[in-house]
Amino acid sequence: MPDTLRPVDSESPRLAQPLYAPIKRRSFFMYAGATAGATALVLAGCSKDPETPAPSINVSLGSGDASVLNYAYALEQLEAAFYAKVVTTGAATGLSPAELAVFASLAKHEAIHRDFLQAAINRDFAGMLLQTLTYKLDSITFTDRTQVLTAAKTFEDLGVAAYNGAGRLFKTRAYVGIAGQIVSVEARHAAYVNGLFAPGSFASANQIDATGFDKQLAPADVIKIVNTYLDATTVQLDVSTIGQ
Amino acid sequence: MNLFNIIEHLAEVDSDVLGRFDSRRAVFNSLGSAAKRAALATSPLFLGALFQKAYAGTTATPVDILNYALTLELLEADFYRQFIAAGLIPSGAADTAIRLIKTHEDAHVAYLTTAIQTAGGTPVAGNATTGVRFNASSLPATYVDQLKVAQLLEDTGVRAYKGRAAELTGTDLLTTALQIHSVEARHAAYIRTLRNQLPWPNATDDVATEAAYTSGIPSTSPNSSVVTLGGATYSIPQYDRTKPSPVESNINQGAVGIQPAVPVSTAFPNVYTPEDAATAFDEALQAAEVLDSSRAGGFLA
Q1: Under 8 Å between Cβ of B177 and B62
Q2: CB B50 within 8 Å of CB B27
Q3: Out of B186, B257, B279, closest to residue A191 by CB
Q4: Is the pLDDT of residue B166 over 50?
Q5: Which of B13-27, B169-183, B217-231 is the least confident region?
Q6: Claim to verify: residue B198 and residue B215 sit in the same structural domain
Q7: Considering chain A, what percentage of its residues have pLDDT values greater than 90?
Q8: Which residues are registered as beta bridge partners of B253?
Q9: A213 phi/psi in degrees, rounded to 5
Q10: Handedness of CA A203, A206, A207, A212 (dihedral sign)
Q11: A124 near B CB under 8 A
């Protein structure tokens, strides 16, 4: 389309005083935006409902493939932090030596996923890396084996559902492949932890449906849960533009 | 549609196209199996087959990918049917879990079959006596060895789904594939634990040298993009013998575009062992590798 909105019909009389104002398309949108912006500013000046508190500190994951990678990075940070604490708690968790040995590998895997995603985002999307997150895990008693296993199962099943639900947001095929390489390891983790609850169990009761499908969750549903492990006065993750 | 117009347009992008359609005999031969030649008598199939053969390895149709998945699910479902029927599984948790795994595979078969029909395609089919099924003479005689085959099939299935996930980028079908793929990974982990192995492929596996954990196809194996298995014929991406998939012990990850993969053990500020690096990521297998007789293809009747 032409850059200006001036009619190109050469037979149209040129008017000295424009009834139309030829304007570049780009400028048109600037003006339209400015009008909307000015309106917003005016409205913002109106008093808000005083009972609504200021929103928590929202941290956006960004948009495009970078945001989907940041989403995975946030989840891996959570899992890595959790398993690191299990490992440092050690035998006091009530886990057997054999179980602790496997949990040490779970911890390594999550740390590797976290470090890998950080490196990949820095390499491919410089400047768009999500900040390092400090997760609060004090709702979990790490010296209680049942609580440790329950938390592990929760995080692993959540991770599987998150990757399954986010996969289609990627635009780049290579990231789909990489995510696939990670999610099956998380599913193996999930099966293992489930098995510690009950022999023969590799999934929670509602995890696999009648069509034999594992869960998939939308980012908004996952991040709601992830945000409960973050200090709401300092950071809450925002997925509203993920994948866009 | 006007075939000649289409070929004219194709000639603009592929100077070889007229050579591909040179003579009916050349086309017949290049399409391989006797079943395919017989099917060519039917005109619509002839046209479809021409385009399949000439341009296989570019973009598969959803039906192609669903039929690939269905083939593997039929194989697994029939294996578990035979595994259970052999009557050697100890009663209790193992028996309950293996029966549950079979219900999942049956559900996958049912879902994929319906999905293909809905997409207007013809699903591959099989049952205990015909079509895509597990070769009964490949079922080992002992429970211990049967369990080993279960592990190989599940781990191969996980690699197989991964191998075609990228073709589904940006689609709802990808979500479907991922939801099945992670269930197969749970199956694999469970069977491994039953066998007192780690839940993931690793260097200490008692079966680490099996083809399921390596890659490539033998030089004697055909790498045709048109494959006939168990009576069903469909296309898979053309296999490049110079580009086998990574093996499970691979530690290099993250190739994206022109960016190369990096060794996960040493590329980051935190240093990891090669074994941790290798086990943190599962690897894909390409369709030709999965269906080769050295892997899943060898289990088909």
Answers
A1: no
A2: yes
A3: B186
A4: yes
A5: B13-27
A6: yes
A7: 74
A8: B262
A9: -100, 140
A10: positive
A11: yes
* Cα–Cα distance, B299 to B296 (Å, whole number): 5
pLDDT digits (tens, 9 = 90+) for A181-227: 999 999 999 999 999 988 889 998 889 999 999 999 999 999 999 99
Closest among A163, A203, A168, A169 to A183, alpha carbons compared:
A163
User: Per the CB < 8 Å rule, is A188 touching B185?
Assistant: yes
User: Boundaries of CATH 1.20.1260.10 in chain A?
Assistant: 58-238
| A176 vs B106, B169, B180: nearest CB | B169
> Looking at the complex, does the CB of residue A103 fall below 8 Å from at least one CB of chain B?
no
Task: List chain B residues with CB under 8 Å of A123.
Answer: 254, 259
Average pLDDT of A5-29? 46
pLDDT digits (tens, 9 = 90+) for A126-181: 999 999 999 999 999 999 999 999 999 999 999 999 999 999 999 999 999 999 99
Q: What distance in Å separates residue B206's CA from the closest CA in chain A?
A: 17
DSSP string, B166-216: GGGTTSHHHHHHHHHHHHHHHHHHHHHHHTT--SS--TT-TTTTSGGGS--
Asked whether residue B22 is assigned to any structural domain, the reply reads: yes
pLDDT score of A80:
98
Query: If you count residue pairs, one on A and one on B, with CB atoms under 8 Å apart, how many are there?
Result: 199
Shared domain check, B293 and B274: no
Q: Determine, for residues A176 and B268 on separate chains, whether the beta-carbon distance falls below 8 Å.
A: no
The answer to whether A165 faces chain B, any CB pair under 8 Å, is: yes
- Contact yes or no for B280 and A191 at CB 8 A: no
Task: Write down the pLDDT at residue A199.
Answer: 86
Q: Which residues sit opposite A208 in a β-bridge?
A: A214
Is A58-238 CATH 1.20.1260.10?
A: yes
Angle between helices B62-85 and B93-118 (to 10 degrees): 150
CB distance A184–B264 less than 8 Å? no
Residues A26-67 pLDDT 10s? 554 444 444 444 444 444 445 555 555 655 699 999 999 999
Compute the nearest-CA separation of A222 from chain B (Å).
Answer: 16
Whole-number mean pLDDT of chain B? 85
Q: Where are the beta strands (DSSP E) in chain B?
A: 226-229, 232-235, 252-253, 262-263
**pTM of this structure:** 0.81
Do the domain assignments include residue B165? yes
Asked if residue B133 belongs to a domain, the reply is yes
ipTM over 0.95: no
Residue A174, chain B, CB below 8 Å: the answer is yes
Over its C-alpha atoms, chain B yields an Rg (Å, rounded) of 21
Q: Who among A123, A164, A210 is closest to B179 (CB)?
A: A164
